[in-house]
ATP-dependent DNA helicase
Amino acid sequence: MIALAYATNGVAATILPGGRTTHSRFGIPLQADEIAMTNMSKQGGRAKLIRQEKLIIWDEAPMAKRHIIETVDRSFRDIMDSDIPFGGKVMVFGGDFHQVLPVVPKSTCAEMVNTSLVRSYLWPLMEKIQLSTNMRARADTKQMTVQQTQHSNPEETLIREIFPVLQENYRSADYITEHAILASRNELVDNLNEMLIGKFPGATKTYISFDSAEDDTNNYYQEEYLNTLTPNGLPPHSAKRKCPNHAAEKSRPLKWIMQWESLNL
């Protein structure tokens, strides 16, 4: 039996064995709507794999807009020549609706909820199973506790606990990707990254971005001001060259390109 797991976002996909994002695997368009279809060909290799799959697991499904999941449903029906939801494939959607809903820029709470899976025509057809016990935390409770003292730096303590043998494994892609510190704000992430990079051996070289404003003939936006901005999806103004950088070919992986390539940066 062929059973494969995918995830809505790249972070969750890296945790899965051979993980891929759903956009990458199914060829979901970036702007999915009520009539959208994936770019999978019925005669292509991806369609052949879907016909062979008996079970498909979709992790972090609540993060996906309902139009995305409905697009996959329509494409599966077309590939399987069936009017049954998802062409008769057994689909397991996992996730927590209390965590992250679909991101809709400049939307109200009601508009955001309206794009979620619970508003889809597929939702009433799904069997809901609620998990009540965190099995991983129960079996590994010691590692889930970070010891904190009154006089210690909490960020330093966190890095030391999560990356206990960083000096020996800083070049290991597996070690770096298997450990992560989550933060609620981008500035906290940047601060933790800077502290973590500082612990890598070797001399530090700092590179800065070149920022300019288009159609700014009056020079209203000085370069110094632009350097202070960090828009969503863009890295900080300065980058330190010291650590291994992992380029993930998650969006368009080719047969001759490895999913993870460790670059010594």
In short: Residues 167 and 199 are 8 Å apart (CA to CA). The first strand starts at residue 2 and ends at 7. The chain has two domains: 2-125, 150-264. Residues 66-80 form the longest helix (15 residues).
